[in-house]
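Hey, I'm writing a tutorial for new members on how sequence and structure tokens pair up, and I'd like a real worked example in the thread rather than a made-up one. If someone can provide the structure for the chain below, I'll link this post from the tutorial.
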Amino acid sequence: MNHNFTMNKHPIEINDTTLRDGEQAAGVVFNVEEKIAIATFLDSIGVQELEIGIPAMGHEEAESIRIIANLGLNAKLLGWNRANLSDIQASIDCGLQRVHVSVPVSDIQIAAKFRGQRQLMLDRLRDAINFACDHGLSVSLGGEDSSRADPSFLLDVVLSAQEWGVFRFRFCDTVGILDPLTTYSKVRSLIHHLSIPVEMHTHDDLGLAMANSLAGIEAGATSVNTTVNGIGERAGNVPLEEVVMALKQIYGIEMGIDTKRLLELSQLVAKAANYSVPPWKAIVGDNTFAHESGIHAHGVLQNPNTYEPFAPEDVGRERRLVVGKHSGRHLVLSVLQQHGITLSQLQIQSVLDAVRHQSVKIKRSLTVEELLSLVPQV
């Protein structure tokens, strides 16, 4: 694969769906205030588009969508709809100018939702798009289960929708079964036949959401449907913070997003979702810039580039050097010197032995205070 997409006439954009697909994660509920706070934060750091909910749900959901639509945000706002007129009307009632219409495109999904009748689905889709366009709305199309759809039927659906006036197609790996090479091939083939842009929507059931999103971008997709912290149905969606930093670090693509606030954003969403972020979570986890092992800490003390892919400050973090079972003498010496303590080589080895013994005993690394308390003992 070559990196042709860097020459793309269209910049790569984030369309964040934390407030729609993210909230569909089992056990996650955002109240109106939290939805407003998340939308406002995403907008303030430069995210270009927000999918802010499902208007047809009514009640608090519709209220929060109406309020967000009236905030005067810079981001383009999108409501999620099925292909029926009442859903579109609910979006209009919420004051939205852009709607996303999702239809099943794989035979397994069409069997479940349209009794296996492809033509019935197409008729409903055409009516929904016409209704939305007649009311002055911009319409994007989502192909639910695109990854398992018959490729020629999928192309027929998207070409028809393109003719009916949709502005973009969302390629959905709804159950996360694709690998990057297959993703590239499927998306490349679609883009070859379309005049509208393609957006990637990937799920992490096999841990490949991020790789598949990048493969889609390599193939020519110009938008990625993300969620903060990767929250979402089952194993979640592709994480916003990972897409933004991967595009920046691997391909040199600046998204116009303030990456220094990604940690703050992650913490806001984690608190609202009532779920903690795993410490080893890429980009925003607590351990992303924490170093304990002797070789790593020694390297980082000399030059951070030895064991860090980018500076912690780039994502709002600070480097942490952790004293624990795997620490070496260089780190222990460095921490003690910072506290005005100078020991002989023999004494440092004794402290190191005590650190390792204590760390195994309490099954974690030591705080600075706990380290200092070991010094008098040697």
